[in-house]
Amino acid sequence: MAYKIKESSCIGCAACANECPNGAISEQISAFTIDPAKCTECIGFFDEPQCVAICPIPKTCIINPDVPRFVAAV
Amino acid sequence: MELGSRKAFAKLRVMQPASSGSGREGCGSKGGSSKSGCGSAAGKGDLAPEIWEKVKNHPCYSEEAHHHYARMHVAVAPACNIQCNFCNRKYDCSNESRPGVVSERLTPYQAAKKVFAVASAIPQMTVLGIAGPGDPLANPEMTFKTFEMVTKTAPDIKLCLSTNGLMLPDYVDRIHALNIDHVTITINMIDPVVGAKIYPWVFYNHKRYKGIEGARILSERQLLGLDMLTARGILCKVNSVMIPGINDRHLVAVNQAVKSRGAFLHNIMPLISAPEHGTVFGLAGQRGPTAQELKALQDSCEGEMNMMRHCRQCRADAVGLLGEDRSAEFTAEKIMGMEVNYDLDRRQAYQEKVELQREAVAAARNAELETLAGEQSDISILIAVATKGGGRINEHFGHAREFQVYEVGTSGARFVGHRRVDNYCQGGYAEEDSLETVVRAINDCVAVFVARIGNCPREGLRNAGIEPVDRFALEYIEQSAIAYFREYLERVRTGEIQHRERGDAEIRQGALIA
User: Most buried pick, B108, B204, B331, B514, via CB within 10 A?
Assistant: First the structure.
């Protein structure tokens, strides 16, 4: 149910953390990371995931394959 | 030491006081020079008195001030909200003062302490700018918090910021309230069709807008922001990157648009573009302009408004006066361990001495100019000058990392640009091909003024048709240029030499390190 940040390409600019409506993104030792428990893929907030939309490096904010996709509560 | 060596790809992160930051290396630190700059009115004569009063000690707005005053940038704003094809966010932006991930990111507290430390060590540091590494207004809390902390302790330091303009209309009132009276907007186009070739996307109102749609939003916001700044009496400079074949001719229209909206200075900078920068333009083989192409465009806009010609496209964390880079003395680690005592009186006393020095430079120039009063000639020449600042010819040829170029005619001498050469003389020995680099950079100049020069480069310059001149060593630049020009006219008149147009010169590629 979440996006994740590819550590090897994150430049650490913090743009995603500023935009995340869930406060799910924080700075860790080597890169910014997304807390999958908080990420809603921006569903219910915006038309597109904010981290993906503002990240300057393509394919850095990507779907996290290790957790199921987010499903909005009905 | 070009960018090829810039492999280190340290993450951009907040430096902890105790950590050892190797952040700045890997970026070719050898070529560093802390030239700042972002504006080039030749001086008082070109500007309205009230504007001159505001900018006269601002090294980024006046080359003349740049000889006497220093500025510093603090890198507190890492996030950006647009993508530019001339910028690779992984590295320092090679075209604007945007350090990339190899730089040290500071918290507002660290940044404020750095400002006080630098201001205490360098009393001629009069300006604090925030320009990145991303966009200051995409990081408004970091940016404004830093300004607030600085201005509380150091009210004499002028504040300025440099932005892409996308968020500017939202923050003009806050900028005004903080007494930030200098803002630079980078405007590369006013036509979204042109813009789409420069900006792949902008992030606005929680959405990524691509192509023409994105460029239109950016352009509208930039011009609205400029209007709002002007209405509040905030001085606004416009930066434009000249990209041959994409916006070079269009920049004349940009010039008119920003002038009509009250921008007081236009800084047209050459595209810096090489494949190793990893920018879209660099990888696509998009070239930058030659020195004469750049000068021709600047000249064609000159009648419209003041053109800035001394911008060195420096990094946003450089510290120091012309030709020196002192940023290594002020890393986050070092400043957090410093005892800093901000001494306003000492700074003011020092600056009074600097003012006397400036007056002496101007008086010498004016006296020399009078000797040209009776002369009538269409001839004008370019002269390259090796200088460390203070308005004097005080740099050894082999140590010069750049040459300042002055155009001299019967109306006087004026600064028209600078040419980077990095170090001709590295590690104590000079190399043949380095001299060729210098010749290519100043090939359009008749002479080069130096404090000293060795026999070997002296001969090489002569062979290239550039006269090496060391007899004005330590003298004032403009005064010497006028004296040389008077003799030049005399030599042409007597037939000793023939005046002919020189060729074009090359703008050195590769990011300026500091």
Answer: B514
Q: Which of A5, A13, A25, A54 is the best substitution to test chain B (most B C-beta atoms within 10 A)?
A: A13
Alpha helices (H) in B45-106, listed in sequence order: 49-55, 63-66
Which of A11, A18, A30 best tests the B interface by mutation, with the highest count of B CBs <10 A?
A11
CATH number of the domain at A52, please. Answer: 3.30.70.20
Q: Is the ipTM of this complex over 0.95?
A: no
- Which regions of B354-393 does DSSP assign to beta strands (E)? 381-385
Question: What pLDDT sits at residue B304?
Answer: 53
What is the number of structural domains in chain A?
1
Determine the structural domain holding residue A19 and report its residue range. Answer: 3-63
Of B27, B37, B31, which Cα lies nearest the Cα of B322?
A: B37
Contact A14 B139 (CB under 8 A): yes
d(CA B92, CA B512): 9
Q: Is residue A72 part of a domain?
A: no
- Chain A 29-58, residues with CB within 8 Å of chain B CB atoms: 30-31, 46-48, 50, 53-54, 56-57
Tens digits of per-residue pLDDT, B428-441? Answer: 444 456 888 889 88
Task: Name the residue of chain B whose CA is nearest to A14's CA.
Answer: B79
Fold of B32-336: TIM Barrel (3.20.20)
Residue A69 lies in a domain: no
Parts of chain B belonging to CATH 3.30.420.130: 368-494
CA dist., res. B436 & res. A4, Å (int): 50
| Phi, psi angles (nearest 5°) of residue B265 | -155, 140
User: For the structural domain made of B368-494, what CATH number should be given?
Assistant: 3.30.420.130
Residues 6+ away with beta carbon under 8 Å from B156 = B126, B344, B347, B348
Which are the contacts of B47, defined by CB distance < 8 A and separation ≥ 6?
B41, B55, B264, B306
Q: What's the mean pLDDT in B273-283?
A: 83
Between B93 and B388, name the one with better pLDDT. B388
Which residues of B are less than 8 Å from A43 in CB distance?
Answer: none
Indicate yes or no: CB of A57 within 8 angstroms of CB of B203.
no
CA B322 and chain centroid, separation: 10
| Burial annotation B477-501 (CB, 10 A radius, 16+ → b, else e) | bbbbbbbbbbebbeeeeeeeeeeee
Cβ distance of B208 and A53 shorter than 8 Å:
yes
* Closest in B14, B79, B105 to A18, CB measured: B79
From-to residues of CATH 3.20.20.70 in chain B:
32-336
Q: What's the maximum distance between 2 C-alpha atoms anywhere in chain B?
A: 71
